[in-house]
Structure formats: C-alpha cells, structure tokens
Amino acid sequence: MIVEIGHYALVLALALSVIQTVLPFWGARARDASLMGIGPVAAVGVFVCVAIAFGALTWAYVTSDFTVRNVVENSHSLKPLLFRITGLWGNHEGSMLLWVLVVALFGALLAVARNMAPGVLRADALAVQGLISLAFLTFLVSVSNPFARVAAPPAEGQDLNPILQDIGLAIHPPLLYVGYVGFSLVFAFAAAALIGGRIDAIWARAVRPWCLIAWVFLTLGIAMGSYWAYYELGWGGFWFWDPVENASFMPWLSGTALLHSILVMEKRDALKVWTILLAIMTFSLSLLGAFLVRSGVLTSVHTFATDPGRGLFILAILVFFIGGGFALFAWRAPLLKTGGLFAPISREGALVVNNLLLATACATVFIGTLYPLALEGLTGDKISVGPPFYDATFVPLAMALLLLIPFGQALAWKRGDLADAVSRLLFVMGVSIVVCLAIVFIQRGGPVLAVIGLWLGIFVFVGGANEILSRSWKRGVPLSVILRRAAGLPRSAWGSAVAHAGVGVCVIGLAAQAWSIETLATVRPGQPAIVGPYEVVLTDSFSRQVANYREDVARFHVLRGGAVIRTVDASKRFFPARNTSTTEAGISTIGFGQVYVAPGDAGEHGLGVRLYWKPWVLLIWIGAIIAAIGGALSFSDRRLRVGAPTRGRRKDMAATNVPAIATVAAQ
Amino acid sequence: MLVAAVVGLGVLVAGAGVSHALQPGEVLSDSKLEQRARGISLGLRCLVCQNQSIDDSDAQVAQDLRRVVRQRLVAGDSDAEVRAYIVDRYGDFVLLKPPFNARTLLLWLGPVIVLLCGGALVLWGRRRARAGTPALSAAEQAELQKLLDDRERRI
User: Fold this and answer.
1) Distance from A242 to chain B by nearest Cα, in Å?
2) CA A535 to CA A83: how far, in whole Å?
3) Are residues A509 and A523 in the same domain?
4) pLDDT tens-place string over residues A477-498
5) Total domain count for chain B?
6) Among A337, A353, B6, B79, which residue's beta carbon has the most beta carbons within 10 A?
7) A383 vs B106: CB contact, 8 Å cut-off?
8) Domain end (from A514, A548, A582)
9) Which residue of A has its CA nearest to B127?
10) Total domain count for chain A?
11) Nearest to A213 by CA among A182, A184, A171
C-alpha cells in the first residue's frame, strides 16, 4: 500500500510539474499575476509529492519489503539500518529519485524565498525549473520506475555492493546531488533572463546565493567522495582523474568561474553575456555528469549501444536542455545590453583572467574525459587518458591560477595599481617564502615541482589572511580597534578570504604528498616494519562475524621511538550474499598526517602489507571544507539577504526599466 | 568517487580478493631495477579496470603485467623497450599517457587552442567595448577639466 502511494505520488508530481512549467510561463507572457502565482504553489506541490515518493521508497528499504524489485536487488534484511536507507540511492532508479527530489527541493525553495528576484524573472525561472523536474520525472515514471514489484518475492535480498556499504554513501551522493542540481536553478535563471531579454545587477544579486549554495555543496561532495575513495579503495590514492570524478569536477570548475563572473556582473555590470553562457555551461556539465555516470557509456561506447533504453533517454534530456539552452542563448543573447569597459589591471581584470584559466582548465578535463570516447566511436581506436596527461596539461593551468589569486585579491576594482598591489603582497610573499623554505629545510629537500606547489599553497593561504589583515590593521592602531574593524568587515569579504585560504590549505596538503613514504613488507607478528618516522608491528589477527559479513582483522601497533602511540585495524570482509570481499585499510591519524596500512595476501612468510606515511594528507580535505565554509560565510552576507528592491505590483507587471545598480564604466 | 563509479556501472573496481596491488613478493631485490619497474608500472593501465595503473590494481591481469615488466627489466631492456614491448601486445590503450600522434593531436593541443582562442576573445571584446564607448566631446572635456580644477583648488 505504502509503495503504491509512493508510486502514485510520483505520477502526481509529474502532473504538477506540467502545471509548474506551463502556467507561470504563460502568466509571465500574459502579465497575469494570478497565473504567475500558481507557479510557487505548484513547485511546492511537486516537492511534497516527490518527498512522499522518496519517503515511501525509504519505508520499503527500512522494512526490507522484498516485493519491490529495487529493494530486492539492492538490500538485505541483515544490513544495518543506515545502509538499508542509503542503499536507496546506491543504485540507478533510487539515485535518480534522489536527483528529482533535489530538483524539486530547489524549485520549492525558490517558490518560498521572498524578495530574491523580481516577479517575471522568478516566474520564468520557476517554469524552467519545472521543465527540468518534468523531464526527469518522465524518465523515472516511464523507464526507470523504482516502485516496480516482483511477481515472486524472494525471502532475502541480493544485498548492496559491499564497497558501497559505508558511511561514505550516506554523505557523498546527497552532497554531490545538491551541488549538481543547485546549478539547475542558476540555469533556470539564465534561461529566464534570456526569455525576458534583460539582465542586470539585480539578476546577479538574485542568482548569486543559489550559485553559492550549489558551489558549497559540490565542493563538499567532491571532497567527501575523494576521501571515501581514499580510505575505501585501499591503495591510498585520493584523486584518479577517473571519468566519473571528472564528471563532478567539470561543473565545479565551471561553477567556480561562474561565481567569480557573477561578482563582476554585480559590481561592475560587465561580463553579462559570458555569465549567462557560463550558467548554461555549468548545468550542462552537471547533466553530462549524470549522463556519463548513469548511461553506462563510460565502460564502453558499445555497452551503451546494446542497452540503449535508459541511456538514450538521458541523452535525449541532455540534448534537449543543453541544445535548448544554447539555442536560446544564440537567439536572445545579442539582445542583452552589454556594458562595462574596464582596465586590464584591476580586480575585474584579474577575474577575467581567472575565468579564462578556469574555463581552459574545465575544457582540458572535458577533452581528456571525452576524447577517448569520441575516438573510439569514430575510429574504433582505444586510448587511455590517465593522470600523466592531466599532470602535463591541467596542473600548469592550476598553478597559474593559484599564483593569480593573491594578486586578484590585492587589486582594487575599476583601476588597480599593479605596483601598489605588489608592494602590498611583498609581506605575503616574504612570509610564504620563509615558511616554505623552512619546511623544505626540515624535510631535507624535495622535488622542485612539489616545493613550488607547497609555496603556492602557502602564498594563497597567507594571501587570504592578508585580505582581512590589510583591511583592518594599521600601524599604531590598538589591537581592540583592529579586531573590531576585522569583525565589522562584510561577511562576503570574510567569505572570500576564508575560501581562498582553504584553497591554499588544500594545495599545501596536495604538495606535501610528494614527501609521502611507502613501504612494502611481509610481516609476521611482533616483527616491525619501518615507514617514515614510524614503526608498524602486527600484534594480533582474528576473525569475527559482523551484521551481514565476516571479517578477518589484522591488528597493528604504530610505534614512535619504541613507544606504542596508536593501534590500528586493517581487515578483509567477506559478504556471502554477493560472494564478494572488500579490503578495509587501517588508517591512523597523527597530527594532520596518516599512517595507512593496506593489507594484502597472507602467505607462508607472513602477511603482505603496503604501508604509507602520508604527511599532512588531511589538509587536502580540511582545505576543501574551509573553502566551503568560506562559501557559506559569503552566502550569509546581509547584502544577499536584503536582495533587490521590490517594486509595486502594477509597475512590476508593466516590466518597467528598473534602474540597475549599475555603475558607470571607468573611462 | 571511483566508488560512485561502482554504483553507476556495476563494475567492481577492487577485485574479489584473489590478488592485490603490488605485493612484497613481487618486488625485485635490485632496488634500482625495482624503482624503474615502479615508474613504468605507474604509467601502464590495468586493462580491465577504470583508469587504474597496474601498480595500484588488484586485478590478475595487472599482476601479470607487473611480472612481465620486471622480467623484461631483469633481461636488460631499457624503460622505453619495456613500454614498447607491452604496447606491441596491448596497443596504445595500455598507456595512461597517450602518445602524441595524428590521432591524439586534438587531445594534446586542445587545451592550448582553447586558451589562445579565449585570450583572443577577451582582447577582441575589450577592443570592441572600447570602440563602442564614445570619447568625450570638446565641451565635455572642458567641463570635466573645470570640475577637476575646482576640486584641486578646494583641496
């Protein structure tokens, strides 16, 4: 019964999304406020219905209802409650339901948020968001129904892929989806601006909070996915330039560019057409990511062709929105008034270079990800594009970008003074060089590229701190005044400083991996193996039965200078339901570094282990979290909450020219 | 996120616990040779995995390839000869860094082309915007000068 209610709610959501798409759009054209007023109601309705459907499927998972095919294929009654719930999105149908839930959530948030955008713009944006819900709901209801029953229910489910039975599955996909889908709303705003034929600083101000939310969640989602892969896949890598990772990284790069270009638009009324284009591209890349992961095209172009149903449907959605978005852009963008001429040496000039580098970096990842697919499709030749390609192409671009960050922060809007910026950065440069050299001295040297990377990370970090310092510190001013001044700075200034410092911390962590140490050893109990400054000793091994798996545990002591400082378990788990095993690395955190124990085969000479000492490895993810906190700080800025000035209803209908907060271009 | 790949594709990244990434038993006693073997291994793709090098992979194929690499090195091959030996048998697909040739021209030059085109576009946009901004007329110029002079006098 509950499952049927869920299925019914899904169909109802589909019907409501038609209303959400058609009526506000029509109302905006006919200048009919009551028609436009239906949009928010429908959007909330769609969300409530999808939430009911999601709740129903969750119920089926929690109660292990093995009459539902999706539950049979992905659950097991012995699984712990958390993994029974997360198993919902550990598969195709369920994850698409989560996707639609987030699309509908953003539609509802836009409907509820007041004063964020003027009437017609909001109505059109709601309509476009409704169209996105409509497309994916149609997909779910027609070819990917999560509520399908089985004729002969089995007594037990087939369990979830053991690798996914992890806390990571509870955190990573929801964060990532909120990020991906958050950009759908930015896309909806871009399409609405194109339909309305007007774009100004008010648009920028209405869109920026949504863009920030999406960016914050995407950042966290990618970081958590990376950490999950790091500890779960068991060979200590955290980024593999895998197509699936790239699929989430591309919208992040493009979204980061968008975040900066919106800023230029808000402050200087420039880069309008480019910002719209970026908004369309960012969501297109999100869709591309969904397509790449969900269609099976990645394994091989040929598997995609043999099982076309779902893949083709998602491809159709992809083509419709990307093609439609770009067609709308080509048709309407020439109507948008461009404006804003600016000097190359200025904050906005630096942001243009930032956008150029980010867009090129994004294009590089795009080419690297899709080139093998295209080549195989066209000629049948198979090539691999792996980490060495990105080391040669992406890394130089990223380094140039990092070098630019503190300069961009030090330059003033309109007409910056390079000499002044450099003199303000002398302190930052000095501090970062001294700290970097000190670290390298303590480590007794290191690879040149890693030293440069380390310096860049410190440079960006100190640059972030300097942004606050330079605006609050003055010689001779008492500390209390300085602190008060710093606290009084706008949240967006803090947000920018913290986010950039976070990037710096992340880069420091990445660079520090050049000093990581690896030891391969075959160990017997009591016999130490040395990894970096530590000794690792196998002390005990035993088996135990846990929930739905059996576990062989190897217990190690981590010693420093003969004293035991940590105990760490590495294990192999066997899942009888799927007849598969997983390896759980033992990880022990010491400061910001980690000792990583990857168990291998047990032989007659003992247990084979791969041991790593990874100095400062946690900084990679801590940096990402700090950057996300920066984004959240910026989001909480009062300027964004006050929003655009509201107009009287009558005036609103007439769509009069609102004096944009546009500033007169320099010169 | 490779983990997520498993969700999407149903491909098991980690094998079924039969063999593992480079094991102590496989290591050559000559540490110089071993270092070269590691370097080569990191650039070779495990054929049945997603973007994993044979050094990291648990798959049987990867273990076999690691063995081949070490055998060739012990036999006295140079690094390039080892790579050529493996590419001869498995094709360019096995190289994680694709070779630069006619088929990969766009792959390698693509980023450079995008950067140059983007840069040109920025310069062109600037020139156009400047051309579109009318210069001040003589009267406006005089007015501006007067304002500036006024200000200076007040200061």
Assistant:
1) 6
2) 35
3) no
4) 888 888 888 888 888 889 999 9
5) 2
6) B6
7) no
8) A514
9) A341
10) 3
11) A182
